[in-house]
Description:
rod-shaped; four-stranded mixed beta sheet; 21% strand; single chain
Amino acid sequence: MIGPNGEQVGIVTIAVANAQAEAAELDLVEIAPTAVPPVCRVMDYGKFKYRESKRRHEAKLKQKQIIVKEVKFRPGTDDGDYKIKLRNLTRFLDEGDKCKVTLRFRGREMAHQEFGIRLIERVKNDLEPFSVVEQYPKMEGRQMVMVLSPKKAVVKPAAAAAPKKEAAKDAVKKEPKEPKATAKPAPAAVAEPAAATATAEKK
């Protein structure tokens, strides 16, 4: 049995375990029924259930739910409408959602599917920096469907290169500088006394 504070009480009878739980005004909960002997714990079962429910709710909120957003085109979609739809697709991909691009053909447009293929290829090329093609364009009845997934960002190893640059700068700073050679002035000529010069002239 495990006590209310997580301490190991040891092997006791059911009557003793119930008595200890009642004395602490708590519940006796079996947490490992398949163990030999079974393991029970003295706890507040209502508080335990509340904490478990709250923990599961927080874990569910942290999970990213991928939603498929659909944007519909026509073979004759003009440039203004095309740019608005392309902007929406870019925003959906940046938010981490998948995008379903649907191109609907009506009436005689089925006889000129090359216009639709050209438009959907344009969409794919314009969204290439933000997405990867999960499902290539294919016909489903009277419409052409393409599915795009957001592209994962590539982390450049700039952070690893920065310490190397700093270390190189420190090494340059720590290099000892050679002392500059200073030229010493030549010793000045000592002039002989005037008296000695006069004596030499008389001789």
